[in-house]
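Q: Joint fold for the lines below.
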Amino acid sequence: MGGRDTDIVLLDKNGIRSDGRKINETRKVTIKAGVLRNAQGSAYIEFGDNKILVGVYGPRDVHPKHMSDTNTGILRCRYHMSPFSVGERKNPAPSRREVEISKVIQEALLPAVILKKFPRTAVDVYMEVLQADGGTRCAALTGASVALADAGIPMRDLVAGCAAGKAADTLILDVNNEEDQAGQADLPIGYMPNLEKITLLQLDGILNPEEFKKCIEIGIDGCKQVYEIQKKSLQEKYFTGDNN
Amino acid sequence: MADSFILDQLKKSQIIELLKDGKRLDGRSFDESRELSIDVNVIPKAEGSARARLGDTEVVAGVKIQPERPFPDTGDQGMLICTAEILPIAHPNVETGPPQPPVVELARVTDRGIRESHMLDMKQLVLEKDKSVIGIFCDNAVTDHDGNLFDACSYATTAAINSCKIPKFEMKDDQPVKIENEFNEPPITTLPVSVTMGKIGDFIIVDPNLDEWSILDARITITTNSDGNVVALQKGGSDGFTQDELIKCAEISVKVGSKIREIIKKNSSV
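A: Joint structure:
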């Protein structure tokens, strides 16, 4: 981002970040699968101070009808931030930013889901950001993968999301809100660890080619950590949790 | 899209067969972009303007400059907003009405490339701190669509901003007043240039035309600055990239971008 002037010390002399993390440490991630009664699949994810609820409906009839595809099911995604999720009230109407994020998340999930068997149907993924603290698109993507799996949608892999970036001239893992605002670069990544494929990638900020390479490595490493938590959340619901 | 489905499938198999032989439908090599022509000052009433023609994709960008009240958290910086719109004259499938997600993405990726590169030194665009700053609005109109609108908009925007003239203002009774016929040069720090690559199967091709664009599995737009650093990036499409592919794409974007930057520089410097 802009490297905006700020009083916050992003990285102290011991290499500790403003929220107490080390440079290669993600925030605490907890995921709970199957939290909504009506949705086919759902997940609640806390990614640091981000709190996001994801519900999946479908495969079901497509409305409006002209959107349906006779060859395959379609995937529709809606990323939305609640008005109370940020410091100053957010207008509840979908912003251009949310339209774009919905699109990139949809494209990040598409390589993972197998919808060929459900022609003329839609799978709708609704992501509601209840509280935002930087890195919501990665967190929403992470939660959406779990919710899709919980809904029993055939999938090739889970997509795990985590950002890498640069703040105080140092490459860091999992950029939080302060680091996004005052840092130098934010590189959100969506990654399918089994297939070794990057399915979401954006960048704001300046990185030289070496830093870019390194940042992708760091980010993929973060995604792999998140992946383990995703798998655990599904295991907890279907194998070891109270429901069984 | 339904009417072109069979044609698309036929073209797709032809394109893929050619790619296997290392060829493309229009004879370009994989890392070759289409011919780019840039004309600046095509709209004299705008403070800056450019027509970019990338193959048969054409974009007209116009810069309007006017004093603005700054955002509360950036009172010490000018304002920069880039937009993009696909005109109904550009393609039979373009519909009027509120912008659809792909158009919103186009506009935001265009804006991000300019903004994140810090092409303009925004601190030099302040008239009075927290009260009045110079707003630079660059609006792109796609007039002809032959694929890869991202790069065409990037080149038109960079050329239009690089060639703009910023009117002089003075503060009178707390209000900015324009001084007629006096201009400043824009505070340009770098020339951002995006390079979009498409992925079809395992092949990666630079600057896909519309035939190629309609069958892409995935795409990536990488914007670099004059120093050869990556400043913005956007992945799209329904497939992913491996780590090695990404690093290759970054290298291509620096190499192809530097050639394009020369063309923009030559044709938009005043």
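Q: Anything notable?
A: Chain B has a mean pLDDT of 94. The CA atoms of residues 25 and 90 of chain B lie 22 Å apart.
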